[in-house]
Amino acid sequence: MAFDVSLTRAAYPALADGYAYLDGAAGTQVPQSVVDAIAGAYRSGIGNVGGAFPASDRSGGIVAECRAAVADLVGGHPDGVILGPNMTTLTYRLAAALSRDWAPGDEVVVSRLDHDANVRPWVQAASRVGATVRWAEVDTATGELPVEQYDTLIGPRTRLVAVTAASNVLGTRPDVAAITARARGAGALSYVDGVHASAHGYTDMVALGADFYATSAYKWSGPHVGAVVADPALLSTVRPDKLASSPDTVPQRFETGTSPFADFAGVVAAVEHLAGLDPAATGDRRSRLRSSLDAAEMYERELFGVLLNGLEAMPHVTLYGKPARRTATAYFTVAGRTPAAVAEHLAAHRVNVWHGHNYAWEVTAALGIRDAGSAVRAGLVHYNNEADVDRLLSAITDLP
């Protein structure tokens, strides 16, 4: 059936303020079901896990449900879902643990396409142990990350390859499976940043070849919770720093401090919301997620065509990146205006966008725009509609 954006938008109370929320690449709004789940957890009473009383049991149940929901979303195993405050924190934690086994002369491969959260933790970890960092370069004309370069970047001393499943500014979807296959052939691990990609279509981390797959719920209609998913058997070989008194089981050994249990309930509700985007979808939650996210991706692609065609028709607009496979994310500048000025102009027209490097530190430098304020980012998600796009295009047209 056709994707019903009106029905979808009705689930999001924040959209009633009349703004065009084209800032989804930095974080989405949440449906009422997520708000209710978080509030409901607090209303019911929650406590720390491991206690002998019902509120503690409720928290334990919420944690288990959250792991299962994230596993369904990305195609992992619940026992391999590490939960934490955000992807950056979790990636630093894993980089510190994994690099304990690295030595001088070992190599780590990172890409200039990635968000800095999948670059700097590995660069810094390599520096501490004397490992070598090798860089995959972006084709700045197209925004693509050529796969062939990995044939010379990956070798017998490669320990880890970090790559994004989608650029958070250019929208580029690299051929992750081809890259991870090369890593696997060399005996290296692959760490895939799926933070931007997970919001824009069905995810199968096994098909991607990801040993570690990172995602963040606030990018797909959930609260501010991050997750890294891996095979539990792999996680059992990794020893992070932890308190002597905290659990040494997997995945708990990677989770420091007391968890935000009510937010975890919101994560479950967010995954259920995504699984219900196609009301006709049937089967288990994983099957419903596939049907719903495929429908949402097709809708986003069609709407993004309207946005791209409109921007490309404007002579005073420069678009960055023309990848063959991409998310619904546009990164552009307007002649004679700084990105900050454009964002302020759009805000005055009740259009929310971001400007700047958006932590895409390396690619904005490669494009030669970082020192000039980088660019403006407009990103579509499944609750945006043509009126949102029209308002942005009209406001950009008004700029001389």
From TrEMBL:
It comes from the Bacteria. It holds the Pfam family Aminotran_5. SUPFAM superfamilies: PLP-dependent transferases (SSF53383). InterPro entries: Aminotrans_V_dom, Cys_dSase-rel, PyrdxlP-dep_Trfase, PyrdxlP-dep_Trfase_major, PyrdxlP-dep_Trfase_small. Residues 21-392 form the Aminotransferase class V domain. NCBIfam families: am_tr_V_VC1184. This is Cysteine desulfurase-like protein.
